[in-house]
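Researcher: Go.
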Amino acid sequence: MQNVAKPIPAHERLIFAMDVPDPEAARRLADTLAIRCISTSSALELFMSGGYFELLDWMVGRGKKVFVDLKFFDVPATVAAAIRQLRNRGVTLTTVHGNRR
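Model: Structure:
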């Protein structure tokens, strides 16, 4: 099998970690940044503040590529159910942690 690497465009190589306390702060920061890919990295505080899914929709609507980095790790069925919540949100990347058995 031939390995065909698809290059990542330069303007998508920088992922900004959106470590802010609430969706309004995230929106202000996203509007200020000229980068295309935004991560909700380590964003448990942002997630718990409410309005997280609306924020994802808002970012995707502005043409941002969104990396949901909530570090999903739980019973496989639970992780799958959580990931399904992202299915129609336009999220580009997410992180899933797992154990090798």
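Model: The longest strand covers residues 65-72.
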